[in-house]
Each structure stands twice: as structure tokens, then as C-alpha cells.
């Protein structure tokens, strides 16, 4: 079993499992709560170029040729990357894969010159809240208030260039570079 990070684009056919499962997951948790068109509207809100270097990036976690996770970031401001689409395949959860993706995104954002990460998650995603809090993110909301009150839960974290090394069990050599779309 070999895990590799693939830097690519949301348009890459290998990203389709990530996008399809995200739509299913978000629709099953939220339905039309945020948008009458469901999760597809959210996932198509940003053009693929937003997740391309030099301002962003899109990474897939590949195991033995199969997409098992991924995530992306885009420019939020001059010093801040906004993380989006952090996902792991539902049948492989609770194995630390989301943390691997999160750490890789932090490292890549730092390599691209960002000093801070900003991200949001939905109020019906307690697993994501736990992931961010357990990995040094600061909640920008009162965690003692019912999360539905806020609807969208923002987090931030300061990152530093040079502070990241790939996990021992991950080959972080990109299989191909991000193409400018």
C-alpha cells in the first residue's frame, strides 16, 4: 500500500471521486439548507483557476492508483490561504488521512509564501471541527454555543515556512505539477 500526493486540478479525472463524494456528503448533511441547488452550487462557486498556483493549489491523496482523499486552497489575502474541499473517502475515515491532507496543505501553503490559514466548515460536520481543533486551529466562534447558531464555523492557524516535513509514510513527490488553467 503506497500513498502519494498528486498536485493537479479540480478538472483532473482523478478528482471526480472527491467531487462526487463531497456533493453526496454535503447534500446528505445539509440538503438545500445553504442553497436550493444543493452542494453542487457550492462546489462550483469558485473557478478551477482559483485552486491553481501561484495563488492556490489542489492536491489528491492517491493510494495504489485510487483517489482516497484531497483538499485545496486558494488565496484569501496576501498572507492567508483559504482551505477548501478537505475530504477523505467515507469507507477509509478514522485512519488519519484527513490529518495527512491537512498537514500537506499547510506545508504547500507555507511553501507558496502564506503565513496563515483560514477555513470554514459547516455546523453539521463535528468530525471536521474535531480535526481542526486537534491540529492547532483556533475557532473564530464560541465553541460553547450550538454550532447551528453560526451555520458556518470559521477557523484560523498561523503557519511558518520551513516548519513542515512530509509524513514518514507519504511520498510527497508530486506526480505532475499544477497546470495553470
Q: Can you characterise this structure?
A:
The protein is of the alpha+beta class and 181 residues long. The protein has 4 helices and 8 strands, in the order βααβββαβαβββ. Strands 6-7-5-4-3-2-1-8 form an 8-stranded mixed beta sheet, sandwiched between helices. The longest helix has 15 residues, at 16-30. It is globular. Residues 165-181 have low confidence and may be disordered.
Using only C-alpha atoms, the radius of gyration works out to 15 Å
Mean pLDDT: 86
Distance between the termini: 32 Å
**What percentage of amino acids are in beta strands?**
25-35%
How is the biggest beta sheet arranged? Answer: 8 strands, mixed
Class by SSE composition? alpha+beta
Helix content range:
10-25%
Number of strands: 8
Q: Unreliable runs, pLDDT <50, ≥5 residues? A: 165-181
**Spatial order of strands in the largest sheet:** 6-7-5-4-3-2-1-8
Give the overall silhouette: globular
Give the number of helices: 4
**Quaternary organization:** single chain
Taken in chain order, the helices and strands follow as EHHEEEHEHEEE
TL;DR of this structure?
With 181 residues, this protein is α+β, with helices and mostly antiparallel strands. The protein has helices at residues 16-30, 39-43, 97-111, 126-134; strands at residues 3-7, 57-63, 66-77, 80-88, 116-122, 138-139, 152-158, 170-171.
Amino acid at each position: 500500500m503506497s500513498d502519494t500526493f498528486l498536485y493537479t486540478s479540480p478538472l483532473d479525472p482523478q478528482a471526480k471521486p472527491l467531487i462526487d463524494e463531497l456533493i453526496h456528503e454535503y447534500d446528505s448533511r445539509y440538503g438545500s439548507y445553504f442553497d436550493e441547488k444543493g452542494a453542487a452550487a457550492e462546489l462550483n462557486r469558485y473557478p478551477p483557476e482559483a485552486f491553481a498556483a501561484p495563488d492556490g493549489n489542489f492536491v489528491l491523496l492517491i493510494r495504489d492508483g485510487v483517489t482516497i482523499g484531497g483538499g485545496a486552497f486558494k488565496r484569501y489575502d496576501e498572507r492567508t490561504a483559504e482551505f477548501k474541499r478537505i475530504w477523505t473517502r467515507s469507507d477509509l475515515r478514522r485512519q488519519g488521512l484527513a490529518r495527512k491532507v491537512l498537514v500537506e496543505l499547510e506545508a504547500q501553503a507555507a511553501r507558496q509564501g502564506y503565513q496563515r490559514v483560514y477555513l470554514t466548515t459547516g455546523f453539521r460536520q463535528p468530525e471536521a471541527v474535531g480535526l481542526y481543533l486537534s491540529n492547532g486551529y483556533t475557532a473564530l466562534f464560541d465553541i460553547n454555543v450550538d454550532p447551528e447558531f453560526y451555520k458556518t464555523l470559521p477557523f484560523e492557524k498561523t503557519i511558518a515556512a520551513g516548519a513542515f516535513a512530509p509524513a514518514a509514510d507519504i511520498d510527497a513527490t508530486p506526480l505532475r505539477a499544477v497546470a495553470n488553467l
